Amino acid sequence: MKSLLTRAVVYGLVIVLGLLSALPNFLSPNLSAKLPDWYQQNTMSLGLDLQGGSHLLLEVDTDALFASEYQAIADELTKSLRQAEIHYGRMKVTDEAIELPLRQAERLSEAATLARKLATDTPDGARRFNVEQEGGSLVLTLTDTWREHLSRDGVERSLEVVRRRLDETGLVDPSITRQGSDGILVQMPGVADPSDIRELLGTTAKMTFHWVALDGWESGGGVFTLPGAGEQAQYQLEERVAMAGERIRDAHMAFDPETGEPVVNFKLDNEGARQFGEMTRDNIGRLLAIVLDEEVITAPVIRTEIAGGSGQISGAFTTKEANSLALMLRAGALPAPLYVIEERTVGPDLGSDAIEMGLTTGLLGAGMVIAFMVALYGRWGLIACIGLTVNIGLVFGILSLLGATLTLPGIAGIILTVGMAVDANILINERIREESRRGKRAAMALREGFGKAYSTIMDSNFTTLIAVSLLFLFGSGPVKGFAVTIGIGLLTSLFTAIAVTRLIMEWRIRGRERESLVISGIAWLDRLSERGVNFMRGRVMGLVVSAALSLAAIALFVHPGLKYGVDFTGGTVVEVQTQGITVDHLRHTLQANQLEDTAIQEVGSEGRFLIRMPAEHQTPGATAEQVSLLKSAVTSIDPTAEFPKVDMVGPKVSGGFSDATILAILLAGSGMLVYLWFRFESHFALAATVTIALDLTKTIGFFVLAGVEFNLTAVAALLALIGYSINDKVVVFDRIRENIRKTPEKPMLELLNESISSTLTRTVFTSVTTFLALLPMGIAGGAAVASFALPMLFAIVIGTSSSIFIASPILYYLGQRRMRKGLAQLRPTDEQIRKELELMP
């Protein structure tokens, strides 16, 4: 009794804390405002697919970083060579190497020594580049270590510049995070059209001041040519930078008092003011070019010394252009260009629809599961439903504590958790019913039922966690949210099933521990399970049919193949809502704007189109330009056109998704193979892995036949399938292992039939609850979750049937092969080893 009370207090405290953690998510703004600030912030944030907004994945152009570093090294080297009076020829600088021919071959070794000294001229003595002598030239190449340093430093500096630029725009709560080795992810809630932000972040804003070369200098070296902004003029400029833009301390848009045109007034720091004063004093009458990103904005004549540390940039700007330039100068220049390689936009209406859909389908699914459990087990089913409700509350509480972002796939994960969380309760109830039918009293039946179910629950949940962890490691964005939700749901379901449900059950039988415990079920299914079914009689037919279906699925995969989404093919999908525009008119307009390769599909209501464009492979950022061009073309014929959703994925990102998907599936299979080998035996592990492979191929065939788009959400479905399917197999295999140890002399076929029959009710009930949880989402979820819900519904049916008709026959044949080799079906337990040692003389 004391133990029961102590556990009740401890478990109750955990539950109350978890529910209190989730509470701020469900309070109205008025009530939430009365809470302490730290408690108000203990909430989940909504993902962009639920609240609307945009995200941009930017890639730092590391080639430009390396080229800039090579140019800096070349300047240092030529300066050192001039000081040493070593003559050299025309230098060749690329983003791969520096090649410098010497005119004095006898001094090549001396020049190499100077170069090697420069190579280690760093604060920590790290070597920047390698020096080689080839013929009469020096060849300098960056070391791998220094390349990594440049990339890392370039991304970190770019992050800071992006953050400053977005802060200047006044965006509400933008999220800026590093992704991968050279990516920056920018998420902007409420931004339905990120074109201005894309342009702002894609501009390097590297400003320098150069003197325009005097007549006669063109052939003297140290001169380069740049175009003027918005005009045909070409400027011959000195290569030497008169002053760098980093000296600009502040910049603001203003209007020229004489012309009324927008201009940018800037202020320099102390060193910049001194330097600017000296250079203007010594060069009165010369043209000073202000260069921004390889383009001359303006080149005014210096009339007098400018000693105040301030200046003005004019260039026939519009107000918007002057504001943008001032903003970028204040935020600083990017160390290298940034290219948009992925863009996703969801309008606010779509986001609210997604929330409504998730809540409706989730509540319907949970309601159907609860109704089924109560109808099946009566008041004992109601206890399981209490545990299920607590489980959902704890999931929300932990997600809130972690400050997680709830996405549409995350909602799908919670709904799937509802179905899978019932699994442990069904397994426990069925074990308790078995023990009760054997004549054991309530307390003993409860103890034995939980004890025998414990290892099975742990094995099945651990194998599912393997798949979920790989989803988190290799997934991206919302898929990670799905993985986190499922992972947390599995852990909380372990707590509620093994601890909370047991506590309530023990409280329920208190005072009647010696009475019989009756848990209702389906009578005919119970009789079928007790009588046993000869499932193994059709083992050959089952394997043949399964293999034939898998081969057919592979053939469908080859031709006609999967309907890949932009996540894997790259390209752009834009949803367009217009008024009174036909498909032909839209197609003609796009073709006139050099968008001939677009595919246009009418969807839903009249005037709603889905436009697909292939990825541009020629230049970085070209795919992002497609989006702007398409929007301009559509608005030219309908200025009121709306773009509720944009998905743009560059070829580099899509290629990465493909590699990560294959790797995740292979690692999931390998991880489960190793775990089952450790927990069971090699032939158990191999039988489960082969069956999973057959389940996967059939599900791929379903994707093809049903025409469901294969995207990142589909990958989540496949890995969830692996976890769910192996969960089923583990329960059957666990009973087979138990029966082998109990009656090792029994024929293998009889033993397998007995094991499958005894777990039949659990297998059927678990599949039904998971199916019911996902059914509303599969029916009413729409295209947003179709790639997850529909394949999962199919996978539940396939996974359940394969646990009965495929996995056990494969295990039988592998077991027979093992017997012919003279090996036991299971390794001896520690207790068996101890007994054998005791019997030894």
Automatic annotation (TrEMBL):
Primary location class: membrane
Keywords assigned by UniProt, alphabetized: Cell inner membrane, Cell membrane, Membrane, Protein transport, Translocation, Transmembrane, Transmembrane helix, Transport
Domain SecDF P1 head subdomain: residue ranges: 231-336
Transmembrane intervals: 357-377, 382-402, 408-428, 449-475, 481-504, 540-558, 660-678, 685-706, 712-732, 764-786, 792-814
Pfam name, any one: SecD_1st
Biological-process GO terms, alphabetical: intracellular protein transmembrane transport; protein targeting; protein transport by the Sec complex
A GO CC term assigned to this protein in UniProt: plasma membrane
MF terms (GO), sorted A to Z: protein-transporting ATPase activity
Ranges where the Protein translocase subunit SecDF P1 domain occurs: 155-212
Domain Protein export membrane protein SecD/SecF C-terminal: residue ranges: 341-503, 631-816
Described function: Part of the Sec protein translocase complex. Interacts with the SecYEG preprotein conducting channel. SecDF uses the proton motive force (PMF) to complete protein translocation after the ATP-dependent function of SecA.
Similarity annotation: Belongs to the SecD/SecF family. SecD subfamily. Belongs to the SecD/SecF family. SecF subfamily.
Assembly mode: Forms a complex with SecD. Part of the essential Sec protein translocation apparatus which comprises SecA, SecYEG and auxiliary proteins SecDF-YajC and YidC. Forms a complex with SecF. Part of the essential Sec protein translocation apparatus which comprises SecA, SecYEG and auxiliary proteins SecDF-YajC and YidC.
PANTHER family for the chain: PROTEIN TRANSLOCASE SUBUNIT SECD, PROTEIN-EXPORT MEMBRANE PROTEIN SEC
Protein name per UniProt: Multifunctional fusion protein
Protein species of origin: Pseudidiomarina salinarum
Gene: secD
